[in-house]
Amino acid sequence: MSFKSLGLSEPLLKAISKKGHTTPSTIQEKAIPFILEGKDILASAQTGTGKTAAFALPMLQVLSGGETLRKRPVRALILTPTRELAAQVMEEVKDYSSFLDLRSHVIFGGVNAAPQIRALRQGVDILVATPGRLLDLHQQKAFSLANIEILVLDEADRMLDMGFLRDIKKILALMPAQRQNLLFSATFSKDIKQFANTFLKHPVMVEAAPQNTAAEKVDQKVYKTNKSKKTALITKLISDGNWEQVLVFTRTKHGANRLSQKLEKSGITSAAIHGNKSQGARTKALAGFKKGNLRVLVATDIAARGLDIPLLPHVINYELPNVPEDYVHRIGRTGRAGASGQAISLVSVDENEHVRGIEKLLGESLEKEILDGFEPTENLQEVLQKKADNKAQHRGGGRKSASSKTRSGFNRRRN
Ligand code: AMP
User: Fold this and answer.
1) Which of 121, 231, 303, 395 has the highest count of CB atoms within 10 angstroms of its CB?
2) CATH (one of 3.65.10.10, 3.40.50.300, 1.10.510.10, 3.20.20.80) for 218-403
């Protein structure tokens, strides 16, 4: 792999070779093509992996391809937690832009603001800044963020640790909604993921670290609940988490259709794909999902087998498969290509035996959680009886079995 094959332009290649870099690092190889495509990025990379160049190079290329406005309003903002990092990033940006007509500047606290204000008033294309000083000088009207095309948050985990969340939120509000966001972080805590979900749009997840085994990379969790509460629970998880691009597995084609329709009714765009759908309908659904027009794709195991989806942040098992190996296939849809992902299973009492089978196969126990308002209260016998009734009803062409008639109160509650 060469820098040229990543799609970088001549002036950048010249600057790279002047720096003495010959081959792209892993994070550069993974992130640069997506950033050039204009995608949002959620990158896991530590210092020393070449992460700065991974965002700086494609950012410079995107900016140099655009229009240079006479007044040079800030078009790209790189936020860093510390002055040291800001200065370091600035140096790299300057090095890589030495053959381009782009101006960059760095601002941080603890030094006299006057020279920074003067430089900003002359116009800069790329601004590297720490959050506090940025807000300070923005208040003094030293620059505007109304023309931001690209935002980079470098070492986002450290920024949150240092208490910059409020400042960052304020800064986000000063920028146009239509922009490219690149988030780099050494670690991915729950807080970081939650924060990233609030402003990244259909991010591609990239990771510098070598690939782990599927089970290590995928954050797996079981939510115990009632069968009848699963739809409400899945809707809540997707809505509250602001999740985009969620692949949901159901056991049956009918189940896939039903769930997809219910999600749509709750305002979550969704489509079902399964063996009864034409190839055209499946291709269309998949394309909509990849483009981000559909948030949720509900699939059966068989339909999902040939799916070509490069990276998925979330996989949800609406129902667990009978065969533990299918579970491993399903969760293999997330955390692929070195990205981290989350696999969630909604488990009712009758599926506990499937959980045990999966845990045996994986050689580890799955984390279990119960959410308030979604407590599992069903009794195993009751659920099994209902399942048998449904089956009988299905076979009998809609006729109710004796036991389901006697349980009509239960059925009514469910509808
Ligand atoms: P970073 O992870 O961005 O802090 O970069 C660490 C160091 O690696 C910096 O000194 C970079 O100049 C250098 N570097 C970045 N990309 C490459 C590369 N592809 N090959 C060799 N060194 C690199």
Assistant:
1) 303
2) 3.40.50.300
Task: Take atom 18 of ligand 1 and give the residue whose Cα is closest.
Answer: 21
Which one of 1, 16, 21 would you pick to mutate in the ligand 1 pocket, going by the greatest count of ligand atoms within 8 A of its CB?
A: 21
Order across the sheet with 76-79: list the strands: 104-107, 126-129, 76-79, 150-153, 180-185, 41-44, 204-207
- Nearest-atom number in ligand 1 for the CA of 52 is 3
Q: How far is the CA of 50 from the centre of ligand 1 (A)?
A: 4
Which of 8, 25, 89 should be mutated for ligand 1, with most atoms under 8 A from CB? 25
Separation of alpha carbons 51 and 49, rounded Å: 5
Domain 4-207 fold:
Rossmann fold (3.40.50)
Residues with CB under 6 A from ligand 1: 21, 23-25, 28, 47-53
Which atom number of ligand 1 is nearest to the Cα of residue 45?
2
CA of 132 from ligand 1 middle (Å) equals 27
User: What's the CA-to-centroid distance between 93 and ligand 1, angstroms?
Assistant: 12
Q: Is 57 exposed, middle or buried (CB count within 10 Å of its CB: 0-12, 13-18, 19+)?
A: buried
Q: What is the pLDDT of residues 299-317, one digit of tens each?
A: 988 777 656 565 578 999 9
Q: Which two tokens stand for residue 265?
A: 């009714």
The structure's pTM equals 0.56
Task: Ligand 1 pocket test: pick from 12, 19, 46 the residue with the most ligand atoms within 8 Å of its Cβ.
Answer: 19
Where exactly does CATH 3.40.50.300 map onto the chain? 4-207, 218-403
Q: What is the mean pLDDT of each run of 10 residues along the chain (415 residues)?
A: 93 95 90 96 83 96 82 94 89 96 94 94 95 96 96 92 92 96 87 89 80 56 96 96 92 94 96 81 83 91 66 89 83 64 94 93 89 92 84 61 36 31
Burial class of 325 by CB neighbour count within 10 A (0 to 12, 13 to 18, 19+): exposed
Ligand 1 geometric centre to CA of 47 (Å): 9
Distance, in Å, from the CA atom of 232 to the CA atom of 247, rounded to the nearest integer, reads 17
C-alpha dihedral sign at 353, 356, 357, 358: positive
